[in-house]
From TrEMBL:
Entries under SUPFAM superfamilies matching the protein: Aminoacid dehydrogenase-like, N-terminal domain, NAD(P)-binding Rossmann-fold domains
Keywords in alphabetical order: Oxidoreductase
Protein name: Glutamate dehydrogenase
CDD domains: NAD_bind_1_Glu_DH
Family from the record: Belongs to the Glu/Leu/Phe/Val dehydrogenases family.
Ranges of residues in domain Glutamate/phenylalanine/leucine/valine/L-tryptophan dehydrogenase C-terminal: 191-420
InterPro entries per UniProt: Aminoacid_DH-like_N_sf (IPR046346), Glu/Leu/Phe/Val/Trp_DH (IPR006095), Glu/Leu/Phe/Val/Trp_DH_C (IPR006096), Glu/Leu/Phe/Val/Trp_DH_dimer (IPR006097), Glu/Leu/Phe/Val_DH_AS (IPR033524), Glu_DH (IPR014362), NAD(P)-bd_dom_sf (IPR036291), NAD_bind_Glu_DH (IPR033922)
Organism: Curvibacter cyanobacteriorum
Entry-linked Pfam families: ELFV_dehydrog, ELFV_dehydrog_N
Length: 423
């Protein structure tokens, strides 16, 4: 891991450090394209913005916002916006870089970008949240647009936030620009299937990986960390396929039921209160989550959750990375040496951006598809991408993560080489 950038100081477990180490691992498989690899280690553009708003009590509060466009070689930037009190520039850089790799892995005509505001939205009123969103959108308005960079939901953002972003951008440009963001409400140019798309993609890649491992989903024990958009939908679809969701952890705590949690009751409960306090399971210590006897583990919260120490304890045979960057490099090695198969974030959670792409295409053509068509196309794209990654993994005897980087980085750097360097 090496960064020649003066403005970040990554370490081996920070998100940008993790990403750099993942790039280093793919270099031997890039052939002559490796000479362009420094491109992958530098974001093309990073914008830091001040977001001042008047709070409900009359105070003026300032929040720090970011939008990073990591790479635009294959198309406009694409990637979500995160509202979280711990967001940093370095984290957004890593998240934007993983978007570059992810979009190329499923062969979408996009580069990678990501945004964030360092704010705890739970401490804001709805009015304050709207003001923060609108001011942030105006500030990053100089670099986003339907052909430049298209934001979408991520942690703590949703269709309502996307509606405000679309409206602010449209007001500032004097257009109705539905294509400037994806993940919008359906009647504002949103796509059927987008809300569930990331969780569905986790399910599809998990189904395929389980088949290859000879693991029956019927009765398989599943533990899920993070029970928001991605984790709850992945759990729901796995349960529909016969799996038992035995443990769920979110920021409020961890609950466990070896017979399987009742998701029809848990999901609405968690939406209101978090999972803690749910009566259909036993409350266990958060750290005990990592020792549970399960077949499938789904990290679907934040980065850096699977540390080296936790990787030694994980009992599952299959890890489905719903979250971005949940596994640090040393933990990756430990899981591989213990025979635990990891379906990496850059393919596992690519269902969301794939349906975002469908939304963007539908917005341009003003012709909307039905949900079955969307889900079928999503399934096909994910399965084809995973098959190619699996073949690459078998050919070079490398992990699925390095294989995904190999497939994606070849596409990214080929585009870079074909476009050339001169203005
Ligand atoms: N929403 C999307 O379409 C996509 C999201 N992702 C990734 O999936 C992950 C989750 O995103 P969403 O479900 O959209 O967010 P969300 O905001 O809907 O849910 C986040 C969940 O993580 C939990 N959480 C937060 N901190 C935690 C902690 N310290 N320990 C345990 N749980 C914790 C929260 O309680 C919540 O249940 C993130 O890594 C995100 O980048 C990846 C691809 C697309
Ligand atoms: O839907 C999108 O455009 C991006 C989703 C996202 O932020 C991600 O895949 O991490």
């Amino acid at each position: 891991m090496k960064s020649n950038l003066s403005y970040v100081h990554p370490n081996v477990t920070s998100p940008w450090g993790t990403y750099l180490s993942q790039v280093d691992r793919v270099l031997p498989y890039l052939g002559h394209l490796a000479r362009w690899s420094e491109t992958l280690k530098r974001p093309k553009r990073a914008l830091i913005v001040d977001v001042p708003i008047e709070m409900d009590d009359g105070r003026i509060a300032h929040f720090e916002g970011y939008r990073v466009q990591h790479n635009l070689s294959r198309g406009p930037g694409k990637g979500g916006v995160r509202f979280h009190p711990d967001v940093t520039l370095e984290e957004v850089m890593a998240l934007s870089a993983w978007m570059t790799v992810k979009c190329a892995a499923v062969n979408l005509p996009y580069g990678g970008a990501k945004g964030g505001i360092r704010v705890d939205p739970k401490l804001l009123s709805q009015k304050e949240l709207e003001k923060v969103t609108r001011r942030y959108t105006s500030e990053i308005g100089v670099i986003i647009g339907p052909q430049q960079d298209i934001p979408a939901p991520d942690v703590n953002t949703n269709a309502q936030v996307m509606a405000w972003m679309m409206d602010t951008y449209s007001m500032n440009t004097g257009t109705t620009s539905t294509g400037v963001v994806t993940g919008k409400p359906i009647h504002l140019g949103g796509s059927l299937g987008r809300v569930k798309a990331t969780g569905r993609g986790v399910f599809v890649t998990g189904r395929e990986a389980a088949r290859r491992l000879g693991m029956d989903l019927q009765g398989a024990r599943v533990a899920v960390q993070g029970f928001g958009n991605v984790g709850s939908i992945a759990a729901e679809l796995l349960a529909e396929a016969g799996a038992r969701i035995v443990a769920v952890q979110d920021h409020t705590g961890t609950i466990y039921n070896p017979q399987g949690l009742d998701l029809a009751q848990l999901i609405p409960h968690a939406r209101q209160n978090g999972v803690a306090g749910f009566r259909g399971g036993e409350r266990i210590g958060d750290e005990d989550f990592w020792d549970l006897k399960t077949d499938i583990l789904i990290p679907a919260a934040l980065e850096g959750q699977i540390t080296a120490a936790r990787a030694q304890r994980i009992q599952a045979r299959l890890v489905l990375e719903g979250a971005n960057g949940p596994t640090v490099p040393e933990a990756d090695d430990i899981l591989a040496s213990r025979g635990v198969l990891v379906v990496p974030d850059v393919i596992c959670n690519a269902g969301g951006v794939t349906v975002s792409y469908f939304e963007w295409v539908q917005d341009f053509s003003s012709f909307f598809w039905d949900e079955d068509e969307i889900n079928q196309r999503l399934d096909r794209i994910m399965v084809n991408a995973l098959n190619q990654i699996w073949d690459t993994s078998d050919k070079h005897r490398i992990t699925l993560r390095t294989a995904t980087f190999a497939v994606a980085c070849e596409r990214i750097l080929t585009a870079r080489e074909e476009r050339g360097l001169y203005p």
